[in-house]
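S1.2 Input.
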Amino acid sequence: AGMDADWIVGMIAKDIKRVLGREGVDCDFGAPEKYNGQEICYHLGYAYAKPFKSARVNSVFITHIDDKIKEIFVVNMKDDFDSFICLSAEDESFLTALGIPDKKVFGITLPVRNDYIRPLSLGIFSSCYKDGRKNEEWIVRFCREHQNSQLVNFVFIGSNWEGFLPNLIKLNCSFEWHNVSRLMPYEYKFQQSKLESLDYYFYLGMDGGAMGTYDAYAYGVKLMVTDNSYHKDLPFIEYSFDNYNEFEKSLRTVINLHEKRLNFFRENNVERYAKTLFSIWQGSFSGNKFTADEKVLNKRRECYLPISLRRILSRVKSFVYRRLL
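S1.3 Output.
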């Protein structure tokens, strides 16, 4: 009640039904008036939530407590519901600090809905030379030493990379090669445009710097370049280095951060969310619990919105609805 079925909360309800349905749990969702004796009731609109006496478990979803009226409203519910589900560990600390029994409060990270995470792209805008002046072998060495290099999309913008790229193929590393003829109209501008898709521009040569570094800097691309020549005059460089070991540390840091991003989306999916909820309702939850935190409580209260007539009327409306249900 009081929730738009097409809002994120409505989507969560559909996710729960879909995921638990695959596990053999009979689920349905709808307005309180449609309650039909279900054993577990998850009330997604706390402002209109009223526990059903015939249900074994009455659980309520809590979010967006942003004024004193809502705070009092939620605290007064503490004896009426078996569990209070919120969006994070910090939310859990906040609710327990308000006085809701910690054994009833569970902070579960809001599930992600993304089905695509953009690959990490690192690129160079330069030709390759037989004398190895661009230190491109550092890339091969890194890929041999670090399996998670396969998470990277290497981008080579320039000529003569055909002799180097088979090394990456052997290591199952991904790459793009944009080999543009000088005879193509506006070829330089066209190649510059390829920089827009990069997360980082890299340059490994110690041969006096690369104009591609300026191009990448102009496009707002993060830099991972040698501490060399006019590179030093740039106001800010994310990662600079003088040798392979320093480069290896820089690239390892960047890839590890990307791997954490991938793991976050992998671990916080709707399947995990629905199954965690069900374990709470079944009394078998074994995850971490977070204690009350007065700092969190004070921070939240400092951000409360002022009481307005609209907010008062909204609470009156929910109070009347619950009485009539």
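S1.4 Remarks. The CA atoms of residues 39 and 56 lie 5 Å apart.
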